[in-house]
UniProtKB/TrEMBL annotation:
Signal peptide: none
Protein's name in the database: Aconitate hydratase
Alphabetical UniProt keywords: 4Fe-4S, Iron, Iron-sulfur, Lyase, Metal-binding
InterPro entries named among the record's database cross-references: AcnA_IRP_Swivel, Acnase/IPM_dHydase_lsu_aba_1/3, Acoase/IPM_deHydtase_lsu_aba, Aconitase/3IPM_dehydase_swvl, Aconitase/IRP2, Aconitase_4Fe-4S_BS, Aconitase_4Fe-4S_dom, AconitaseA/IPMdHydase_ssu_swvl
Any matching Pfam family: Aconitase
Swiss-Prot/TrEMBL cofactor(s): [4Fe-4S] cluster
Stated role: Catalyzes the isomerization of citrate to isocitrate via cis-aconitate.
GO MF annotations, alphabetized: 4 iron, 4 sulfur cluster binding; aconitate hydratase activity; metal ion binding
């Protein structure tokens, strides 16, 4: 390292001494935003004159807040975080790369994480059982039965790879475990060098850790693998939007209401590709758990990150959550030495600014299809009525009510019935104020004799063992159970579509009554078709409101004026009768203790008896089993040579899918249950798997054969190439035969016909799914043309060798009169090209190339980022 600024210094903290790279050595950085100081330190410490130059460092020191991003830097996070749905395919790829590097003349040990990598198994537990004390135990038992192959594979990976640790199942949700235990805030390497803890994660809500002053964001699995293997992340120095918070939340409002308000404001402002940084006097009244809630939903407001600086509240949380006093002292000393500790005098320059007086926040929900669509609770009944009318018309549903027997009595279910009420996901389960608030609502409701409606599937999925500890300590677990909110497992559950089956009588009522029913969840993934196949409207709400809607049993209610139910005395009960005051919530939060954290995380990597009993394979290369339907050696590196091919034009392509606006990675990437009559279902049956053992797409991400068959198979996908259909249906051209997208892709492959995708605005929004890039690549997709892209998905397309193109401003498939039946050619594709010519039959138009950096062009030329890394490593062995 060249250290041309002489920034290498010594920092004494108590009896310990550390090396650090002083920002002030690079120049006057007092007015740089906190997040920019983290980027500056990253470059300053890694300056080598090649990957990181002196001019790179100076570009941040002299950062022009108003300038459009244009300067590329090589950023290297301190560590990588994964969950099991995205982590299993990442480890599968690493195992495949070990085989491939041997084929290219290298050795297996060259494929090994250089940066610490931690994986938390949290995406596999499903709500098969609920509403009983043994629900969690039964769900955990089924989880291990379904996922034994995957878990064996991960245990092999933990032993085979250095620098790779696994947090076993039934411990907690990845982002909450990261916040409460894994995050260092200030990292210390083996040489005693101290620097900001930074990370990338294979899940979009990695940003939750920004609440702790740690810079992190979600990337595709392929990018994360490259980072693990020592490849820096190529990025443009971003704009930083400053968001000033003042005041404090009013009585009745929660952190969930605050974040939904912020999401709405930032979405409207436009922060895609930008950093967001929170500042202002309001931070003095904002607990760290509330900060983490706001940071968590950065993907919903579209930013790369939503970060809070280190301050006294950060230190308080580190102490509460069981971090060592040595670590806390280092965090404080380091942040103050670097001018990164927030106090009353802290000022910074920002590219743009917004402001919110938190006293103006009102109770809110969002939905019914997207987490960013906020609805004030006062408007919720009217908004529901409008949404349900539209959805019923679209789906051709006619009836609106059905009378049936449930729980030994006759009940009437109507449109808007809440059939799933789930306290779930990292967004809110990390926050004691809303979790204890839910418990207080349950306590007041139970005392009045209220219960959940009989058709509601209730569940409580705590984000960590700590939540159970403090709910029990506050005497609030029993009231939650009285309303049916028993613990069903420690994982994401409903938020990722693992809601499990509805009771048979509820499913029958939905079908018989032609009903449009609802879910209410505290998780942020209320996308269309995500929560449950039979549920058409999905709403995000705070945990206390989830309990309230479970009692009401319907979304067709004005919670301000309509009774929520009748008490045991026969009198109407209103929401205001069971809603806790801020003082009551604060008293409950004050009971949360450091001991509850230290007990819960005493041996976080050990796992329970089920995990410990797993007999994992050994060896530095994985022994692939041909008959496995969970883990298969992917074909990405088959026939790969030591040198990349040349970049060429795309000729004679057909459209595989013509898509509209807001097509999410849930529509693209296989997720949820596997239908028996789908291509993936047929594949599993052909391989001897009974339907009851299909498990979910997410659990089978380690098998490319299942995943490529499930790509674009979402039940709510609407392909305009096959109008009037829902699901993964298309036309095979030029004949026009209707078939599944997978089957059409295979027919195109037989004739060596390239295929492309056409889409509208915000293509690929939602979770950071690498399979949204891998699946199309395996289906033969060579290019996508969209009006705009979500950040991670665009990067994933490049990472899989797919060319992302963008219509020019004001142009679209509609304006250009593209029907999808045309034969397409794309010419002018060459390294560094900013535009190409697209020809559709006898018409041509210009499209913008969204390969944004020179490094991404290298990845594209090599056929993808993993191919690039593999060739680099194999070359070092020669």
């Amino acid at each position: 390292m060249s250290n041309s600024f002489g920034a290498k210094k010594s920092l004494s903290v108590g009896d310990s001494s550390y090396t650090y790279y002083a920002l002030e050595a690079a120049g006057d950085v007092t007015r740089l935003p906190y997040s920019m100081k983290i980027l500056l330190e990253n470059l300053l410490r890694r300056e080598d004159g090649a990957v990181v130059s002196r001019s790179d460092i100076e570009a941040i020191v002299h950062w022009d807040a108003a300038a459009e991003p244009s300067k590329e830097i090589a950023y290297m996070p301190a560590r990588v975080l994964m969950q099991d749905f995205t982590g299993v395919p990442a480890v599968v790829d690493l195992a495949a790369m070990r085989d491939a590097v041997v084929a290219l003349g290298g050795n297996p040990e060259q494929i090994n994480p250089l940066a610490p990598a931690e994986l938390v198994i949290d995406h596999s537990v499903q709500v098969d059982h609920f509403g009983s004390d043994d629900a969690m135990g039964k769900n955990a038992e089924i989880e291990f039965e379904r996922n034994r192959e995957r878990y064996n594979f991960l245990k092999w990976g933990q032993m085979a790879f250095d620098n790779f640790k696994v947090v076993p199942p039934d411990t907690g949700i990845v982002h909450q475990v990261n916040l409460e235990n894994l995050a260092r805030t200030v990292f210390v390497d083996q040489d005693g060098v101290a620097y900001p803890d930074t990370l990338v994660g294979t899940d979009s809500h990695t940003t939750m850790i920004n609440g702790l002053g740690v810079l992190g964001w979600g990337v595709g699995g392929i990018e994360a693998e490259a980072a693990m293997l020592g490849q820096p992340i190529s990025m443009l120095i971003p704009k930083v939007v400053g968001f000033e918070l003042t005041g404090a939340l009013p009585e009745g409002a929660t952190a969930t209401d605050l974040v939904l308000t912020i999401v709405e404001m930032l979405r409207k402002h436009g922060v895609v590709g930008k950093f967001v940084e929170f500042y202002g006097a309001g931070l003095d009244h904002l607990p760290l758990a509330d900060r983490a809630t706001i940071a968590n939903m950065a993907p919903e407001y579209g930013a790369t990150c939503g970060i809070f600086p280190i301050d006294d509240e950060t230190l308080n949380y580190l102490r509460l959550s069981g971090r060592s006093e040595e670590n806390i002292a280092l965090v404080e000393a380091y942040a103050k030495a670097q001018g990164m500790f927030r106090d009353a005098s802290s000022v910074a320059d920002y590219s743009e600014t917004l402001a919110l007086d938190m006293a103006t926040v009102v109770p809110s929900i969002s939905g019914p299809k997207r987490p960013q669509d906020r609805i004030a609770l006062t408007d919720s009944k009217a908004a529901f009525s409008k949404a349900v009318a539209t959805i019923k018309a679209e789906a051709g549903l006619s009836s609106s009510a059905v009378t049936t027997q449930m729980g030994g009595r006759e009940v009437t279910m109507q449109d808007g019935a809440v059939v799933i009420a789930a306290i779930t996901s990292c967004t809110n389960t990390s926050n004691p104020s809303v979790m204890l608030g839910a418990g207080l609502v349950a306590k007041k409701a139970a005392a009045l004799g209220l219960n959940s409606a009989p058709w509601v599937k209730t569940s409580l999925g705590p984000g960590s063992l700590v939540v159970t500890e403090y709910l029990e300590g506050a005497g609030l677990m029993e009231p939650l159970k009285q309303l049916g909110f028993h613990v069903v497992g420690y994982g994401c559950t409903t938020c990722i579509g693992n809601s499990g089956p509805l009771p048979a009588e509820v499913s029958k009522a939905i079908s018989d009554g032609d009903l449009a029913v609802c879910s209410v969840l505290s998780g942020n993934r209320n996308f269309e078709g995500r929560v449950h196949a039979e549920v058409r409207l999905n709403y995000l709400a705070s945990p206390p409101l989830v309990v309230a809607y479970a009692i009401a049993g319907t979304m067709n209610i004005d919670l301000y004026h309509d009774p929520i139910g009748k008490g045991r005395d026969g009198q109407d009960v209103y929401l205001k009768d069971i809603w806790p005051t801020q003082a009551e919530v604060a008293e409950a939060v004050a009971s949360v203790s450091r001991e509850q954290f230290t007990k819960s995380y005493a041996d976080v990597f050990a796992g329970d008896a089920n995990w410990q009993a797993l007999a994992a394979p050994t060896g530095d290369r994985f022994d692939w089993q041909d008959d496995s339907t969970y883990i298969q050696n992917p074909p990405y590196f088959a026939g790969m040579g030591k040198e990349p091919g040349t970049i060429g034009d795309i000729e004679g392509a057909h459209v595989l899918a013509l898509l509209g606006d807001s097509v999410t990675t849930d529509h693209i990437s296989p997720a949820g249950s596997i239908k028996a009559d789908s291509p993936a279902g047929r594949y599993l049956r052909e391989h001897g798997v009974e339907q009851k053992d299909f498990n979910s797409y997410g659990s089978r991400r380690g098998n490319h054969e299942v995943m490529m068959r499930g790509t674009f198979a979402n039940i709510r996908l609407r392909n305009r190439l096959a109008p009037g259909t829902e699901g993964g249906v298309t036309l095979h051209l030029p004949g026009g035969e209707q078939m599944s997208i997978y089957d059409a892709a295979m027919k195109y492959r037989e004739t060596a016909t390239p295929v492309i995708l056409i889409a509208g605005k915000e293509y690929g929004s939602g979770s950071s799914r690498d399979w949204a890039g891998k699946g199309p690549a395996l289906l033969g997709v060579r290019a996508a043309i969209a009006e705009s892209y979500e950040r991670i998905h665009r990067s994933n397309l490049v990472g899989m060798g797919i060319l992302p193109l963008q219509f020019k401003e004001g142009e679209s498939a509609e304006s250009l009169d593209l029907c999808g039946h045309e034969v397409f050619s794309i010419t002018g594709i060459r390294a560094g090209a900013r535009e190409v010519t697209v020809t559709a039959d006898d018409r041509s138009f210009t499209a913008i190339v969204r390969i944004d950096t020179p490094k991404e062009w290298e990845y594209y030329q090599h056929g993808g980022i993993l191919h690039y890394v593999l060739r680099q490593l194999a070359g070092k062995a020669e």
